[in-house]
Amino acid sequence: xxxxxxxxxxxxxxxxxxxxxxxxxxQYPIVYADSGSTDGSVERAAxxxxxxxxxxxxxxxTAARARNAGLARxxxxxxxxxxxxxxxGDCVVVGDWLDAASSFLDKHDxxxxxxxxxxxxxxxxxxxxxxxxxxxxxxxxxxxACGGDALMRAAALEExxxxxxxxxxxxxxxxxxxxxxxxxxxxxxxxxxxxxxxxIQHFGQWWKRTRxxxxxxxxxxxxxxxxxxxxxxxxxxxxxxxxAAFPIAVIAxxxxxxxxxxxxxxxxxxxxxxxxxxxxxxxxxxxxxLFMTIAKFAEAAGALQFFASKMLRRxxxxxxxx
Length: 322
Fold this sequence. Notes:
Layout: E1 3-9, H1 14-23, E2 30-34, H2 41-47, E3 51-54, H3 63-77, E4 83-88, E5 91-93, H4 97-107, E6 111-120, H5 127-136, E7 141-143, E8 150-153, H6 154-160, H7 171-181, E9 185-196, H8 203-223, H9 233-254, H10 266-278, H11 283-312
Parallel strand pairs: 1-2, 1-4, 2-3, 6-9
Antiparallel strand pairs: 4-8, 5-9, 6-8, 7-9
């Protein structure tokens, strides 16, 4: 046995069932790491043949902690595995991804992580699901990071001590950064890997998910502020500027000169710039541009939440959108 699978989840319900069902034919050992589910996920996973490990509630739940716990259990039961496939419980593994990814790592000893195309299950059901699908559509070839679904080399994970369990978001890019600093490569293949079920039905859900992204920008870029391979510094600065510093400055100066409020025209101009860069004749380009501009406010809120928590030494908790 060369490859094992770690699935993580928290109250994923039928999404978890679909995830585990998609892995049945692989014949690879599966560990499901549960973070305090109350919907019967533990029992369902066990009934479907997965080895289950339950995270202790005494410590804060994070996806990183769950992945580490699943990996530890997998190594305990199958100690000689070479590759580990990590899958989020709201994803379905498609086609022959596991075989294709394992074959790629077999042929590329310098690659620690290989991932493929994650697609959204119902991208047309809501604008928010469609935005997720656009987010997953990243360039192929050598990459800086992967997402929650990826096949990783066990030796590389051991070398870097796995995921950082203190991060509530952004743990995959953070791990990939540490891997790259040690000389490993991250690779994205031009093949389908998983179907993701975001199931975002409301603006509030999308806002929370985007705010979590801003929190991750701040947490990871701060953690690696001295790294030569700078990560998310530009994204963080852009979010803080457009989502907080610029509007606050305009409002403050506007009390002294009302003409200053005209600077808010920068936002529609920003929307137009993004839309034109994509395809100004396509209405979806304008919708994308609008939400990417609004996203800066959510990201800034998340980043400021991180800095406030750090300054006040508050315990950070998961930002859940489902």
